[in-house]
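Notebook entry, structure prediction.
Reason for the run: the old model in the group folder had no record of what sequence produced it. Starting over properly, with the input documented here first.
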Amino acid sequence: MVKPLACFKLIDELVFNVVVNTDHADRLRVRWMDSPQEMLGRAGWNLLIDRITSRTQGASEFANSD
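New structure, fully documented this time:
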């Protein structure tokens, strides 16, 4: 799915708008982050960024609920 893409912007849009919303995102993140291919690695790191920011937003919403 990501291998044929060669444009950074397309990778970012695909990952942040499609892949993060699937049940496979965590499994793909682990596999792609370890890839020697630059674009797959970028996709994996983008998934990690989304995971971290999603958890941070959830934690701040919980902290503000008092």
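Summary: Residues 50 and 56 are 10 Å apart (CA to CA).
The old model has been moved to the deprecated folder.
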